[in-house]
Protein 1
Amino acid sequence: AQSVTQPDIHITVSEGASLELRCNYSYGATPYLFWYVQSPGQGLQLLLKYFSGDTLVQGIKGFEAEFKRSQSSFNLRKPSVHWSDAAEYFCAVGSMDSNYQLIWGAGTKLIIKP
Amino acid sequence: DVKVTQSSRYLVKRTGEKVFLECVQDMDHENMFWYRQDPGLGLRLIYFSYDVKMKEKGDIPEGYSVSREKKERFSLILESASTNQTSMYLCASRYQGASNQPQHFGDGTRLSIL
């Protein structure tokens, strides 16, 4: 079955520290991968996406993610977090065969310690 | 920038009422989606629409219907609201021209059914 797993429900990081949010997927077709961020009370904003080519993709707000096919992972990273990064982060997977639909992870809530 | 506008940020209705949630996008996107979001469950697809007057059931369509009479507008209807439909509802739209196009989200409607 197709699925997306974000193993961490919550992550707490000190301001200025590095961040890695994990995303693992199980998908039969060649995946397209997305990371979205949701600030409290807001909709989802696209951070970055991977379709093909360079497996390290850069996104907005200083985020990057690396696609590792052998590990079925697409982890999100940021070298130094800011208090404004506190939000919920969602990983999603789609493909040419997915009929326009995305499969979503349950989300990881990022808490920033001052 | 894509603009997806949901008509209400907060809505309070009573059990048994017929509830309409409206979503409008300004980018001539073919595809539109309605999700509900509940803590720990991520995003669950209720209905989506390929194009005008076309609709497909998502993962949790029971108790909901949709209408897409114009390309820019996608309405979600709760036929007879129940307390278990209290949730955050998110609308998204997407350009159909390539299957790897991301979805763009509105700010959400937080619906409470009393």
Note: The two ends of chain A are 41 Å apart (CA to CA).
Protein 2
Amino acid sequence: QSVLTQPPSVSAAPGQKVTISCSGSSSNIGNHYVSWYRQLPGTAPILLIYKNDERPSGIPDRFSGSKSVTSATLGITGLQTGDEADYYCGTWDGSLGAVFGGGTKLTVL
Amino acid sequence: QLQLQESGPGLVKPSETLSLTCTVSGGSISSGAFFWAWVRQPPGKGLEWIASVYYGGSAYYNPSLKSRVTISVDTSNNQFSVKLSSVTAADTAVYYCARQERGFGELFQLDTWGQGILVTVSS
């Protein structure tokens, strides 16, 4: 049982937009920055979004992040087959330290 | 370009201590802006943060693992390490090291990750 709640899976067609939600509480998302990670099969996670809505250099603007109270959302537009991966949200929790969501598997139909 | 590389045994016996080292290249582990973290991922499951250490030695631990974990830093060799004692099959996972931005009383995103090392706990 993860501290942050994500849907196990989402899917959409190539070229479409998808959103992935991440729900937490006041002890984590409500008072701390959210980051998002993408993990392709058999590889290490990479940072997609940090401090709620910032993109590291090299991450295309097809990826966006937002936060509202105790929830956060990752948006991906212009879906490509190469976007098929597991996506994780993460944040800091005042009692637990660094915490992650359970992960969401994105399928591009 | 910053790179992190995990090393250590891929097989550990139950009840023994798992020891891993992360070697940092392309940057200094003594940078004041960052902590250095360990994260693990059991096969087919999600990410679990283990602990993070600052070059000065201060550290944060996952409360659920704290009694079994020791994290340390070796600035002279630009490395940091983790030890997990009394391992069981539940500790079988891919272990990643990563760089984590420092905040005030909290830590932020993990921006650079090693490739990971699979550690199996089995007799």
Note: Chain A is about 0% helix and 45% strand.
Protein 3
Amino acid sequence: NAGVTQTPKFRVLKTGQSMTLLCAQDMNHEYMYWYRQDPGMGLRLIHYSVGEGTTAKGEVPDGYNVSRLKKQNFLLGLESAAPSQTSVYFCASSDTSGTLEAFFGQGTRLTVV
Amino acid sequence: AQSVTQLDSQVPVFEEAPVELRCNYSSSVSVYLFWYVQYPNQGLQLLLKYLSGSTLVKSINGFEAEFNKSQTSFHLRKPSVHISDTAEYFCAVSETGGFKTIFGAGTRLFVKA
């Protein structure tokens, strides 16, 4: 059981470049989330989805876009990367039991130079 | 709006000593409470959770946390830590019936020999 899988694990971008981070889960979870983790700031929610075809803004959505075309996949896009987006990105999923216990991927370390 | 405050950013402790990691939250509605652990270069994984019932919850590796509604706290304790407990610990809260989980900034536990 793979759980939540993120690709890629590492990436270096130049300022202004674009990229897409892929998150896939095999637990048939309805809810999926993208967080960024920065030192001293914990995890901050970027965008989330409560089901296939839905997306919503989280705490820090500027500069990012997301899509949930298939229930098992949640894509995070950076259209024009900036150094401030250097971070570790985590995808998570949870079911609809109501507790929102989250299952996390291993993270993507992104550096924007 | 919910918020989570972890009162200590770093906690150094000697092996076999007791430890307490503090967490306070604010919410206007009923909540579920979680502690997640993150080992170096890994994603977060659930350590323990409070959903309802007994206010003292325990993990399989000796950690416990107590939900105190009057003090809006959910402190994590372990009577005797091991080197292998060195990790970052995140307190988190989700509102019953909500879609999102809010994380604290994290507490880095460093166990010294």
Note: The two ends of chain B are 41 Å apart (CA to CA).
